[in-house]
Amino acid sequence: MTTVVVGAGLAGLAAASRLRAAGEEVVVLEATSRVGGRTRTERLRYGQSGDLGGSFIDLGQDRILRACADFGVKLTPTIRLFEPGPDGRIDLGSVLDNTVVVEGRLLAPEERAKAVDEVRAALSAVPPVSTESVASWTARSGLSRLARRLVRAQTGMNPVHEPEEIPMSAIHPPHSGKTCWMIPGGADSLATAMAAGLDIRFGQPVRSISRNRSETVVTTSSGEFACDDVIVATPVTPTRGIGFDPVLPEWKAQALAATPMSQGGKVVGQYADGDALRRRLGETVTSDGPIAFAWAGPIGEQDTVVVYGLVPDRNDGFLRDEGRALAALDDLVRAATGAEPERLAGVLQDWTRERFAGGVVSCPMADFPRLPALLAREVGQGRIHFAGEHTAEHWVSSMDGALRSGDRAADEVLLRRSVGSAL
Ligand SMILES: Cc1cc2nc3c(=O)[nH]c(=O)nc-3n(C[C@H](O)[C@H](O)[C@H](O)COP(=O)(O)OP(=O)(O)OC[C@H]3O[C@@H](n4cnc5c(N)ncnc54)[C@H](O)[C@@H]3O)c2cc1C
User: 269 CB less than 6 Å from ligand 1?
Assistant: First the structure.
């Protein structure tokens, strides 16, 4: 029995590995020339790497932690991005309680502490409802101009759109950052390790998936692949571009239509005097500028450091202009550290324009519990399965969620096989 997996991101690779381990014939069709999808790493100077997509692994993300252990992928020492508040939990105040640059100026520690206290008091006096927009809560809670500006700037962190479009659940409490890790060799090294030994056909963008009584046919720009089952492990937007015949049931099409993807990218700069720069920068930098959130990675052997900046797509051309983005990263580092940075290398990655990604991550605006379940559910008499970060039951939108979703889709196929042979 053959299964075709569409997409060689972490979800597709997890599905294919699990099926192969169970003795299934598996072919992975990948549109691009590489594995890893939204995990992509730029190799910089002196053997240092810069993740352009997924990067942090969080405490509790046991699936990816196990995969790293299985494949010998090393992790950094633990990183703590945010400090807990007085009640021991991380909250929106924790995100602001770091280096903050507003209108190009570094906030003094006492100004910042005042804003953090104000936000925490507002969270307790006017508890946000998860579905109300950030713009709505900041108006309703009567925050001062500075605190409102800081909270509204958090909508750019994921990176996502404007405060009017983002539910409070996306920024409070933060989903991660208390204890996490990175992969010093680059986040895409996990995908590379998982891909070894799999039958992956590159340059095969899937155009349509059709089913008749006896088989399913997956058509790419250059070939046709007949199979028993298909696992569609493509992100939300590219999935909407595949021609399903028969067409997807209404509930599935509506679930896909109701799940937009956040838009934006990442600017990555490698700097000299890494240790000193990192100490001055602090754990994270929050800003109301074009780079909404930044942090420094581990120090390299030649005392270099990679600074990462998340860039929400505000449709102003910033994400298409590498020179401007790198200059803005230098400005942010200068403002945050008070020192003149020496940049050795840098790169800008625009995920909005990546045709086979369609954006950064799925960003459901409502009906949070139900949408991933609908996005995950199989169709075509149980022969067309769906995986990908947006379909994950746990850790949706993350690398861990992607792996889990691939496991689940593979199990659906295997269950159908075992039920079929038992009858
Ligand atoms: C800037 C950024 C920062 C992030 N930060 C983090 C983080 O710190 N921690 C974290 O856990 N997660 C993070 N993520 C999210 C994480 O990277 C993703 O959730 C995860 O990698 C998604 O894996 P996936 O397999 O579901 O999809 P993808 O990785 O997108 O894989 C899908 C694959 O399908 C292929 N494909 C698409 N259409 C077709 C087609 N028609 N035919 C054939 N192939 C097709 C694509 O080329 C791709 O290889 C971040 C993502 C971005 C972009």
Answer: no
Name residue, tokens 């089913």: 211
Q: How far apart are CA 269 and CA 344, in angstroms?
A: 8
Using one digit for the tens of pLDDT, what is the confidence trace for 115-126? 999 999 999 999
pTM score above 0.90: yes
How far the first Cα of the chain sits from its last, in Å, is 16
* C-alpha of residue 110 to centroid of ligand 1, in Å: 40
CATH code 3.50.50.60 for 2-38+188-260+362-422: yes
CA of 39 to the centre of ligand 1 (A): 6
Classified as helix, coil or strand, 242 is coil
Cis peptide before 159 (omega within 30 of 0): yes
Residue whose CB lies within 8 A of the most ligand 1 atoms, among 5, 17, 32, 38, for a mutation test: 38
Question: Which of the four pLDDT bands, split at 50, 70 and 90, describes residue 361?
Answer: very high
Domain boundaries, the chain: 2-38+188-260+362-422, 41-60+75-79+179-184+263-350, 92-170
Q: Is 194 in the pocket of ligand 1 (CB under 6 A)?
A: no
Question: How confident is the model over 84-88, as a mean pLDDT?
Answer: 88
pLDDT (tens digit per residue) in 301-312: 999 999 999 999
